[in-house]
Write a structure and sequence with these properties.
The complex is a heterodimer of chains A (111) and B (110). By secondary structure, chain A is mainly β. Helices cover 0% and strands 54% of the residues of chain A. In chain A, strand 7 and strand 8 form a beta hairpin. The radius of gyration of chain A is 13 Å and the shape is globular. Chain A starts with a strand and ends with a strand. With 110 residues, chain B is mostly beta strands. Chain B has no helices and 11 strands. In chain B, a hairpin with a 4-residue loop joins strand 7 and strand 8. Classes of the chains: A mainly beta (111), B mainly beta (110). At the A-B interface, strand 4, strand 5, strand 9 and strand 10 of A face strand 4, strand 5, strand 9 and strand 10 of B.
Chain lengths: 111, 110
């Protein structure tokens, strides 16, 4: 059974640009959640989608958005990138409120 | 607001020792608690999941306990090995949202 797949693995952008990250969950998992991990702030919850609906949102500015498609794949978008957005972005999938399984993450560097 | 604390922040032990990692949380109305390990620059690997109605879970050399009333969980690692060196994180889940501790970085010396 394939695990959670995140693409791309690494990304380098400049300030002001926008970026889209992709997450393919484990087959059968309808819940996808996103997290930002930085050395200073640890793992911070961004948002969670279940059956194409955003169920929860963390305390991040509106520049961070996401969506989920009918096949449960999810994308996260960050617009007007800032230096402080440099982080490891992690996606996790689960059955509803079940065990979380994480992908390898996308390492985003903003220059 | 849920807050999760992990103590100690770092731990260094010789190979073969048994050790305990601690996780505490402020809101006991959780759905489940999960322990993970993370290697540098990688994603999180699930170790154990404890549902709110359970007291403990075991997998191989790992044993995790949960005391909801006191807001505490412990992860016990028996006979530690150098390959156990990693950062260990706990997360509590409620209403579809998971809150993570900052982790304990474990180093097991040969």
């Amino acid at each position: 059974k394939a695990g959670v797949t995140q693409t791309p693995r690494y990304l380098i952008k400049t300030r002001g640009q926008q970026v889209t990250l992709s997450c393919s969950p484990i087959s059968g998992h309808r819940s996808v959640s996103w997290y930002q991990q930085t050395p200073g702030q640890g793992l911070q919850f961004l948002f969670e989608y279940f059956s194409e609906t955003q169920r929860n949102k963390g305390n991040f500015p509106g520049r961070f958005s996401g969506r989920q498609f009918s096949n449960s794949r999810s994308e996260m978008n960050v617009s007007t990138l800032e230096l402080g957005d440099s982080a490891l972005y992690l996606c996790a999938s689960s059955v509803q409120d079940g065990e979380l399984f994480f992908g390898s993450g996308t390492q985003l560097s903003v220059l | 607001k849920q807050e999760v604390t992990q103590i100690p922040a770092a731990l260094s032990v010789p190979e073969g020792e048994n050790l305990v990692l601690n996780c505490s949380f402020t809101d006991s109305a959780i759905y489940n608690l999960q322990w993970f390990r993370q290697d540098p620059g990688k994603g999180l690997t699930s170790l154990l999941l404890i549902q709110s109605s359970q007291r403990e879970q075991t997998s191989g050399r790992l044993n995790a306990s949960l005391d909801k009333s006191s807001g505490r969980s412990t992860l016990y690692i028996a006979a530690s090995q150098p390959g156990d060196s990693a950062t260990y994180l706990c997360a509590v889940r409620k209403a579809g949202k998971s809150t993570f501790g900052d982790g304990t970085t474990l180093t097991v010396k040969p």
